[in-house]
Specification:
Elements (H helix, E strand, L loop, with lengths): L8 E4 L8 H13 L4 E4 L11 H10 L5 E4 L2 E2 L5 H15 L5 E4 L4 H6 L7 H18 L6 E4 L4 E5 L11 E3 L4 H10 L2 E2 L11 H14 L8 E7 L1 E2 L9 E2 L1 H13 L5 E5 L5 H23 L1
Parallel strand pairs: 1-2, 1-13, 2-3, 4-5, 5-8, 8-9, 9-10, 10-13, 11-12
Antiparallel strand pairs: 6-7
Helix pairs in contact: 3-5, 6-7, 8-9
Length: 297
């Protein structure tokens, strides 16, 4: 059993469909009003029906007052890390410290190359992601000039800035042993999805992160564990993991905290059903907070 004892956080995962842009922003405003902590927006620039994630995040921050926003996860092959670092810091400054950054190594390579992005092998993608973390931190460093020479990314006497308004977390949406090791050494959080990494796979992945963190002199509990969760909040009998009544959701999410080590849950509803999102915020989230508090007590 693993519970890192971290504070619980909850968020929403709206789909950035251009045909219903106002509805997406309405969901974000609801999340803000209902006291959720995060909004995560997927980043697939090659999806013709999707808005640009970074433009949408700016609008989301402007339409809210307290919730934090992050790309879930940023498509690194189409977002040069030095430029992305400046965009992230800018959004953080403009929002008063409400931006976080989650990075992905890339997928759907034929679509990426169709947009003039690089095609990388799994090893190259992992190396580029690891280097990107270094580059982004240098761009936020406040140093007068920074340099970096990597196999995929380089800085040659860049004057970094602006500094973020707060210490932006760098989270990685990764799953392989090599990148989980990189995460343990240098990242602030882990952002997998239950559709790719179901609960039974999580303990071994936590162990890899923790092993790497400990070897680097870090406390594994300092690493946030974010889980993108997809399912249906129903009134009838359960239909598998996260497919049933509120009580089932509370039991399963509480177990993921106190037995499996996750601490943050970002919910995506089929069709972005606003009724589902409101039930998540009003019925599920408070009950999970109470249940976890009882277990920890």
């Amino acid at each position: 059993m693993t519970d890192y004892g971290r504070p619980l956080q909850f968020g929403m995962f709206p789909t950035p469909e251009s045909s219903r842009a106002e509805g997406v922003l309405d969901l974000v405003e609801m999340a803000d009003e209902e006291g959720l902590d995060l909004v995560g927006i997927q980043d697939h620039p090659y999806q013709k029906d999707f808005l640009d994630t970074w433009s949408l995040m700016g609008f989301a921050l402007a339409r809210t007052t307290r919730i934090r926003v992050f790309p879930d996860v940023a498509c690194l092959p189409l977002r040069p890390p030095a430029v992305m670092a400046k965009a992230a810091a800018s959004l953080d400054v403009l929002s008063g410290g409400r931006f976080e950054l989650a990075l992905g190594a890339g997928a759907f390579w034929s679509a990426i190359t169709a947009m003039d992005g690089p095609e990388r092998t799994p090893g190259e993608a992992a190396g580029a992601l690891s280097e990107a973390v270094d580059v982004i931190r240098l761009m936020w460093s406040g140093e007068r000039s920074v340099q970096y020479e990597g196999a995929h990314h380089r800085l040659a006497g860049v004057h970094p800035g602006p500094r973020p308004a707060h210490d932006i977390g760098i989270w990685l949406g990764v799953g392989g042993p090599r990148m989980l090791g990189v995460l343990g050494r240098k990242a602030d959080g882990w952002a997998p999805s239950n559709s790719y990494f179901p609960p039974p796979t999580l303990p071994a992945m936590h162990a890899r992160i923790d092993e790497s963190a400990t070897a680097a002199g870090r406390d594994p509990a300092d690493i946030q564990r974010i889980y993108n969760v997809f399912g249906t909040i129903a009134d009838g009998p359960g239909g598998g993991f996260l497919g049933g009544p509120v009580g089932q959701w509370v039991e399963e999410l509480t177990g993921l905290v106190v037995e499996t080590g996750m601490d943050t849950f970002v919910f995506g509803a089929e069709g972005d059903d606003p009724h589902q999102h409101r039930r998540w915020a009003v019925e599920v989230v408070p009950a999970v907070r109470e249940a976890v508090a009882r277990h920890r007590a």
